[in-house]
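--- STAGE predict ---
source: upstream dedup step, 1 unique chain passed
mode: sequence only
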Amino acid sequence: MQSFPDQHTQWPSRRQWLRLGGLAGLGVSLPAVLSPRAGAAPTTSASVPGFGRAKSVIVVFASGGQSQLDTWDPKPNAPTKIRGAFDSIPTSVPGVRFCEHMPKIAGIADRLCVVRSMSHEDLDHGTAFYLSMTGRYHRRRSGNPLPSAEDHPCHGAVLQRVRPSAEFVQTAVHLNGPAEVPIIIGPGQFGGFLGKGYDPLTLGDVTGRGVAIPALLPLTDVSAVRLESRQSLLASVERSMTRLSRDKAALDKNTLYQQAFNMLSKDRTRSAFNLSAESDDLRDRYGRNRSGQACLLARRLVEAGLPLVTVIWNHNNRGQDKAPENTDTYGWDNHNDIFTGLKDHLLPRFDQSFAALIEDLDERGMLDDTLVVCMGEFGRAPLVKLEPNFAGASPGRKHWPSVYSIVFAGAGVSPGTIVGASDETGGYPATEHFGPWDTTATMFSALGINPHQEYKDHLNRPYRICEGKVIEAIY
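--- STAGE serialize ---
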C-alpha cells in the first residue's frame, strides 16, 4: 500500500505555487488527490435516523470553549454568581431562551437543535480540542501537547481516507486556521498517523482581496495549453526519477504538484474560493471580518461540492491577551473579563455570522442536505470568579467539560428542538449525556458512512472511524 510522509510542511509564496506546490503566505498544506480507499465495512447504519441525509458538513468550531450559561443554556433563575451578568431572551421556539446578546440566533432557533448535555473528562484546551476534532481522547489527557505523527487523524483526514471527494478537488478544508490553543498549533487538526498527505487544506485569513487563495487566479501569461505543457514536462521529468517510488519526501511533493495542477485547471475550484463573486450586501450580512467571511466561504465551498469544511472561530483561543482591541483575535477562553469579552467582541459577531450562515443555507435550499454543527472543546464553569493567574480585571469562568452545549442544524435534524438538559446550575448533565465521539459518529452517519467501519493506515493496521453512537435524539 502506498505510504505518505507524516511531517507537516509550510509552503512559501504564490510565485512558487507551481514549482513548490505552495499557496501564498497562507500556511497551506495540501492532501493527496489520489488515496487508496479503505476496505468498506458493510453499511449497517442505513436504518439510523439521519443516515446519508447530508451531502456536506459545516463545522463552526468555537475554539476556547463557549460558556453554555452565556449562550445556549442560560439559567435566568439561578443566583448571579452562577447566572452571570447577562439576561436571557425568548427565541422563536416557545419556552426556549438564549443569551440576550444573541438576538439574531434567537430568531432562527426554530431551525436549530441544541444539545445541552454534552460532557467529557478532558480539562485543557490542547487535548480537549484534539478530542473534539478526532472523537478520541489524546494519549495524554488534560494538557497542551504539540501535534505528532502518532496522533489520530482529524475528521477530514479520515473522510479523505474512507471516501475522498469525487466532485471537489479537496475532501476537507479548514478555514481561519490553523487553530492555536492558545499560542501553539493544537493537535488533532491534521492527518496524524495517516500522514501529511491527508492534512485538510488549511487557510488563514480569507478576507483579503476577495479571493481566498490568490494563487488560484489565472495568470494572464499562462494559457491552458501552456499549463498542460508544464504539467506534461513535470510528469516526464519525474518519470525519470527512479527514486520517487522510494523517497517519501519526493512522493509527497509529487502529490502536491498534482494537487496544484488540479486546482489551477478547474474553473469550479477557482470560482468556489472567490468571495468577490458574492454581493456586497451578502458579504456585509455575514460580517466583514475573519470569522464572518470564513462562514460565507464555507457556504460557497459546500455549494461547489466540498464534503467537509471547518470554520475555526477564532484562530487563537486567547488572542485577546495580546491584542485586546482587535476583535478578530478574540477566542472563547475567557478566564477573566468574560462578560465584556462576550458582549463587546465575541457575541455580536457570532450572532450575526452564524445566523447569516443558517439563513443563507436555508434560503438557497441547501440546509436540507447540509449538516451544520457548532461546537467547542468544552464549556465554562457554573461559577463566576476572578482568576489571579490570568489577564483581566473582572471575573470570568474557568474550563468546564462536565457539561456544555453544541448545536446542529439541517440534513434531517429536527428543527426547533432541545436535546438533553443540564442541572439548575448549568454544571452537570441532568439527563443522558453525549460526548465528542458521538458528535463524530453523527457527522459520518449523516454523510452516509457507517461510523463503526474500519479504515487502514499505511502499515495496514485497522482503525474504526470512531467508537461513538449517533445522537439519534436530534432527528
